[in-house]
Amino acid sequence: MLRNKSTDDLHKLWYVLLKERNALLTEQAECHTKNMVFPNPFRKSKVRKSMARIKLVLHERSNIYQHNLAASAPPSTEDDEDEVKA
Fold first, then answer.
1. Does residue 82 register a pLDDT over 80?
2. Distances in Å between the alpha carbon of 32 and those of 15, 25, 28, 35?
3. SS3 sequence, the chain?
4. What is the dihedral of CA 21, 24, 30, 32, to 10 degrees?
5. Residue 63: CB atoms within 10 Å
6. What is the mean pLDDT of residues 58-86?
7. Does 83 have pLDDT greater than 70?
8. What is the pLDDT at residue 79?
9. d(C-alpha 11, C-alpha 23), whole Å
10. Are 28 and 55 in contact (CB under 8 A)?
11. Distance in angstroms (rounded) separating the CA atoms of residues 81 and 86
């Protein structure tokens, strides 16, 4: 499902998850200082997994882009290098 999202949407979702992760860490720290049990600790792992999945999709896209960029570049020859040096 993430692969169907646009890059802009994935970046927006990444920052929403980042804010959620920071909120959860703040809540966990408050619970720790008040000697309370952190409710639903599995939420942190869900956010972490979601962020990792987004990062994977963006990394795949970057690799494909770099591969296509290299494939579309004209092959360099020794003549081209000599012209640049002159």
1. no
2. 25, 10, 6, 5
3. CHHHCCHHHHHHHHHHHHHHHHHHHHHHHHHHHCCCCCCCCHHHHHHHHHHHHHHHHHHHHHHHHHHHHHHHCCCCCHHHHHHHHC
4. -100
5. 10
6. 79
7. no
8. 61
9. 18
10. no
11. 9
Q: Kindly give the interhelix angle for 42-72 and 7-33, rounded to the nearest 10 degrees.
A: 150
Contacts with 61 (C-beta within 8 Å, 6 or more apart), sequence order: 7
Nearest to 15 by CA among 70, 54, 49: 54
Compute how many other C-beta atoms are within 10 angstroms of the C-beta atom of residue 47.
Answer: 20
Structure tokens at 81: 């290098």
Domains located in the chain, CATH noted: 2-73 (1.10.287)
User: What is the average per-residue pLDDT within 13-33?
Assistant: 97
List C-alpha distances in Å: 75 to 16, 25, 71: 42, 50, 9
> Is the pTM above the cut of 0.70?
yes
65's tokens: 């882009």
